Amino acid sequence: MVEETMISVIIPTYNRIDSLRQVLQALVAQTLPDFEVIVVDDGSTDATLAPAEAAACPFELTCLRQENQGATAARNFGAQRSRGDLLVFMDDDIELLPHTLATLAARHAAHPHAIVVGTLLPPVEHRGAGAALHSIKSGGDAAIPFTECFTGLLSVRRDDFFALDMFQDPTGGWPNWDDVDFGYRAVKAGFALLRSEQAQAIHHDAAALNLQNASRRWYRAGQSAVRLLQKYPEIRPHLPMFFDKTPIEWGQDAPGLVLKKLLRRVAVTSVVMMSLEFVVSVVEAVAPNSRALQKLYIWVNGGYMYRGFRAGLEAYGPLPASDRARQNNLQDLE
């Protein structure tokens, strides 16, 4: 029975006390009657929840603290201290809609051998062109590839989580791709990955506030992705966003891919990037909801991801040889 499923909600947090309070307030409105919440403070330097605030929550709230080790370690720490049969991991900027926990419990009752990812929506004020800055896409109630496994809102049965050796940090960077790593290991172990359209939450993503924040995140994501692909070279064909960011392999890359890589080299030069960012500032002022602005965001963020990826190659070394035949089959890049 769904009603008998005890849920543990695990929230890592770092220097976001106001956002965390908003997250907890949304949890008060959940229709599911019985769940616990575990907040893991990853060594924050700002204010923390007062004991009186924790005591006022209508659900059981446990506040833990660890020395700054990153969100991956915080999630695992919270899971180890949890009591629930079903673990729900969410970030400290995720505002659940009232039915979401009940929906996740129902999805796991229907699919016992599955990991479920929720649907994240941008705030109302960012649902125009600015929504393009969000890195997480919403989707249907269907199977998804491991590359769309996101820890912003993810649920997994407790026994399955520990059988998969919890979350792992494959890169040591930030973002560290621990969600894609977890999804890949889960799929290899025979689990289904599902996205529930009904398990909804609003994502108050700080990177969506302006292009500078988004670009910084994409740069770091590109940089740390090098280590991900060094650990799992076999997943390279599943991440087409990096196809045109690797060095040209003459005699192996398809002609279309060579052209893409050459064009990307030109597109990330300082002159081009500065020009694009200037155009963005103008379009934001005169046409903030235009489709053109969405395209500009994508181009600029792609350029920063390229720069980060190349910085990662310089710092960590080249990628292992990939399955060239499979990659060339995917040369029709987006």
Keywords for this structure?
single chain; 334 residues; alpha/beta; Spore Coat Polysaccharide Biosynthesis Protein SpsA, Chain A; 2 domains; nine-stranded mixed beta sheet; 11 helices; 9 strands; disordered C terminus
Protein model, in words:
The structure is a single chain. This protein has 334 residues and is an alpha/beta fold. The protein has two domains: 2-208, Spore Coat Polysaccharide Biosynthesis Protein SpsA, Chain A (Alpha-Beta Complex), CATH 3.90.550; 211-328, no CATH class. The chain has helices at residues 17-28, 51-56, 71-80, 100-110, 158-163, 178-188, 211-231, 255-267, 270-286, 291-316, 324-328; strands at residues 7-13, 35-42, 60-66, 86-90, 94-96, 114-121, 142-143, 153-157, 192-203. Strands 1, 2, 3, 4, 5, 6, 7, 8 and 9 form a nine-stranded mixed beta sheet that branches. Strand 1, helix 1 and strand 2 (35-42) form a beta-alpha-beta unit. It is globular, with a radius of gyration of 21 Å. The model is unreliable at 127-139 and 324-334 (pLDDT under 50).
